[in-house]
Amino acid sequence: MSAATPTLQRSFGFYGPTYRPPFTKKQCSRFDSESDFGVDTCGFMPATSANSSWTRVILVITAAFCLAAMTCACRRGSQNANANGPSSTNESDAEQSKRAARSLVDKGKELSDPDHNQDEQAVQAFQEAIRLQPDLAEAHLRLGMAYAALDKKAEAETSYKKAIELYKKVIQTDAKDADAFFNLGQAHSFLHQDEEAAKSYRQATRLRPDDEEAFYQLGRAETKLAHYPEATAAFQKALDLDPDDSRAVEALDNAREGVNRIKEGKKHAEDMLKKQQENANANGNSNSNSRSRPSPKPSIRRF
User: Fold this and answer.
1) Fewer CB atoms inside 10 A, N or C side of the chain?
2) Global confidence as pTM
3) Hey, which residues does 13 pair with through a beta bridge?
4) Is the dihedral of CA 95, 97, 100, 101 positive or negative?
5) For 302, which DSSP code?
């Protein structure tokens, strides 16, 4: 067999040995992959193209899924941001309103102080505080006090009643709020509801045993109820906490006088009862003696 005659070379295919003619280097060099990448693609080009096509399809599908997932995540994040954004803004606005209302109450207290005596301006400050925070109990209480200073009794009474309503809600939420109990006592006292005022002040002193003002106000409420022994004890406690409180000194003297009046009144009542019993016994003996005497015989008159 001459050298010019091509020979069949044996190779193994999928179904067994097959024979294919040999390719020359010139024939194989037409594939760029051979020279550039060192991959023998001679005779296998159709399978490689198919694999590459499937790879591209898989990559495209994977990219599509990733893009869809990223889109959904972005939309969800945007929805959450939109949902949380207004809520956070609302909470921030509410906190700002509370701080502003609190500041206005402090300003109103300063204006209504006897050193300033600007009750009209104080009323405006308290009204603005209520506009910003309608459920601020102290604003209603202070507004009532400012109205009272201006001799606006009806407006003051309305404000006190609203303050009582709101303070009751406060202590239902927090039964250990000493300030709420004290201010509740103030509102009751301004409406001459002395029994309720005394209860509120008494609870304030239990929650805050070192509150001199609470003991003083409790003593005043007890005095109005003519509970002089209780008032004396409250004023004495106030003086123990603040010996320089001249109000408590005078009030304690008045309460002690009340105690003495009660004692004298009881003694007088006991003496009167005793005297009445003695008189009743004396009258009973007199009537008994009268019945025991013989009745005189009637005289016969002669003509």
Assistant:
1) C
2) 0.63
3) 16
4) negative
5) P
Report residue 138 as tokens.
């102290």
Integer Cα distance of 290 and 248 in angstroms: 62
- In one-letter notation, the amino acid at residue 9 is Q
Q: Find the DSSP H helices in 32-136.
A: 32-37, 45-112, 119-132
C-beta separation of 129 from 104 below 8 A: yes
Q: Which two tokens stand for residue 49?
A: 């193209």
Sign of CA dihedral 192, 196, 199, 203: negative
Across the strands, what pairs with 20?
9
- Cα–Cα distance list, 99 to 67, 105, 138, 173, 261 (Å): 47, 10, 14, 21, 51
SS3 for 22-49 is CCCHHHHCCCHHHHHHCCCCCCCHHHHH
Please state the separation of Cα 274 from the chain's center in Å: 60
193-230 pLDDT tens trace: 999 999 999 999 999 999 999 999 999 999 999 999 99
Q: Model confidence over 272-291: pLDDT tens digits?
A: 888 888 888 877 666 666 66
